[in-house]
Fold:
Amino acid sequence: MKRSPPRADVRIELLDWESARPRAAPIRHAVFVEEQHVPAESEIDAWDPRCVHVLACDAAGTAVGTGRLLPDGHIGRMAVLREARHLGVGSALLIALMDEARRRGHANAVLSAQTHAIAFYRRHGYTVVSGEYLDCGIPHVDMTCDLGMPAPVR
Structure:
């Protein structure tokens, strides 16, 4: 299945943490700490400086979503501001992270998905590979995707 391109009004930037932090950290704080009640001290971690980060910016240039790729091919910290959800921002972020993982030579991408987002990740070619577990009190499952082929998006 052919994947859909990101929306024309969403611009994706790949950045190191120093460059991404001023715009990514507030998005992650709003989504994870304020909405989902993740402890603030757990949200920013020692992995951030070692990751490549993506920002999704709207037509006005405002950052509305973010995510990161760890050196081992794990994707994480996917967050989209409430007002930008269901507009294709999450898909644009995930596609950019998967493309970067491929570029870096990873055969698979792995992520820890909140259970409410399983269907979203399945649309991008991910399959569940673990039982449910709690991370910061939120139900999660591990998912993986073969990066040998472009991810399907419906």
Q: What stands out?
A: The longest strand covers residues 138-146. The chain is about 30% helix and 30% strand. The helical segments are 17-35, 40-43, 89-103, 118-123. Strands lie at 11-15, 52-57, 63-69, 74-80, 108-114, 127-128, 133-135, 138-146.
